[in-house]
Write a structure and sequence with these properties.
Radius of gyration: 31 Å
Strand content: 15-25%
Helix content: 40-55%
Distance between the termini: 23 Å
Shape: elongated
Strand order of the largest sheet: 2-1-3-4-5
Oligomer: single chain
Length: about 375
Amino acid sequence: MSTIKILLVEDERIIALDIKSSLLKFGYAVPAIFSSGEKTLEKISDIQPDLVLMDIMLKGNIDGITTAAKIRDVYNIPVVYLTSHTDEETLERAKKTEPFGYIVKPFDEKDLYTTVEIALARAKAETEIRKSLEKEKEMNELKSRFVSMVSHEFRTPMATILFSSKLLENYSHKWTEEKKRIHLNRIQSAIQQMTNLLEDILTVGQAEAGKISFNPQPIDLYNFCLEIIEDIQITWADNKHQMNFIFPENFNECKAQMDEKLLRHIFTNLLSNAVKYSPEHGQINFIINYAENNQVIFQIQDYGIGIPAEDQKHLFETFHRATNVGNISGTGLGLAIVKRAVDLHGGHIAVESEMGVGTIFTISLPLHSQLNIF
């Protein structure tokens, strides 16, 4: 544990050195002694003390009470007054700055130690309460965004299912088999979108709770990737994209040890995004290469709208979506899940993107992942 730093503001040099000696004896650090409020305010941000012991009467143009008020408002650092002033007016001014203690000079070491310890304990308690309130506020905001997102994202596939099923009910006896198949595919695609969304929601919930399981098992990467591509083509059948699978020689013989469920999250999300953010009939490249140190490199490349530079540093944050997506549906969950799944494999993910040109996601994973504890 780091030593607690106490900043001492006292214009009587002998008294200041005596207090410093006592504080050092108690095991605290005293990084500086100042005799004016101006100097204190100038240097406090560099020192970042845990507590300030403040005399009320100081050299310079501002007294200890004014200095303490600014410290509270700007830095939120607790202050304890050390003073010989006990008149009502001074006490009322001091109370308005919400001090963590008030010791009247002269005082003994025991009083000083007790006051400092109580002030530090109160400051710690208030910090924990503040963090809890901020966390609660953050969680409430996330819940609100989550409910809004789920409501919106479920509405479209459910409308598709309802519309196509009604058409099939009323007109299937008049339609060709091809036309029936189109609407059945749309229903299946909508159901798959809802299933994927539910899976993402559950995974994000597990990630937030630190409960994502990681179970690397032997996997046939070649056939697994083919299966993923087929699933994407079925889900996004209406988009008619050209999906190119590019892999090294003998990749169909590659045996790896990875978590199949997490891999599915990675590639399903990245390939779905590549389709979503590319024009109809656009080209998607799914490229695989071997690398040094028994690594395999996966690249998903599209020629779509690209990602603005200012958004790229936030891509893997929950609920974040790029500012140029417009009306394209999305949850902001997928890339957060991808990043977590890559981390659990002990891998690395990077993105290169240019507006209007396209995007390349590069994932490096060890061929034989071990169980990592996060």
